Predict the 3D structure of the following.
Amino acid sequence: MSEPIRVLVTGAAGQIAYSLLFSIAKGDVFGKDQPIVLLLLDITPMLPVLEGVVMELQDCALPLLREIVPTDKEEVAFKDLDAAILVGSMPRKEGMERKDLLKANVAIFKSQGAALDEYAKKTVKVLVVGNPANTNCLIAAKSAPSIPKENFSCLTRLDHNRARSQVAMRCGVPATHVKNVIIWGNHSSTQYPDVHHCLVNMSGSELACFDAVKDDAWLKGEFIATVQQRGAAVIKARKLSSAMSAAKAICDHMRDIWTGTPEGEFISMGVYSTGNPYGVTEDLIYSFPVQIKDKSWKIVGGLSINDFSRTKMDTTASELIEERDTAVSFLAA
């Protein structure tokens, strides 16, 4: 058995964490022989609820879970971390302006970035889930100057999985038969789910997605809108935001960071845009197709981008630039 790794989940008393913690603790993410110390951070009023989550984790009697540390203190939660999954954020309340939401979240992620900088290992891998995830991730990274920007990513794997599943259902194949969909840009309704490089395994042979689906109008219209609006559709139906699917996507994202992506496949995640090969504005956290090896991601280069794609990639970049500039103005305040 290897030494235990220290894994933080914030917003640990919330519903995404409730769907996530069991998977992490039983070894689905960091490996079946990797012991774990779980650090669980939430705000002070949530500590009684968090205590119930701790009891349940204890009652699972999991062999890899060495210790559980529930806390409302950043200096405890961020100490010597190997991985940080930042789920907690200020949710948008009714009648709330987007800039007010950004302001509240800048305060949270500035503080957590500073805590990462001061207390965590410099090798820590940080995944930001709390929305607006791309910009929250950028603020955390900017607030932790001693940790490499490459160690920060935000979750667009849920959008990636949604896109993959839509194509699979349309073709009547399992989701595992669909690979190399791409989510470009922001984890918002401006994201661009791109299937121009996607392959579908149809009865043993790999076809380009457009050839497998045989419905260009759907792929360029309803498919994109469905993936963009899926989060809102789940809220409308369940009266709660996606938790089970978000937790699954978090597990996929972190597992791929830890163990790498399969040969010839790429996945989507929000990463630092500076130096990217697609002409996307620098100094953003933008979702790209990436491959991962030895816990390091690399943007997949050389993919052809047509005018249809370029327009959509630019639209989502514009939104991210605006978000960034607003957030950075609050950061300086």
User: Anything to note?
Assistant: The chain has two domains: 5-154, 156-323. The first helix runs from residue 15 to 25.
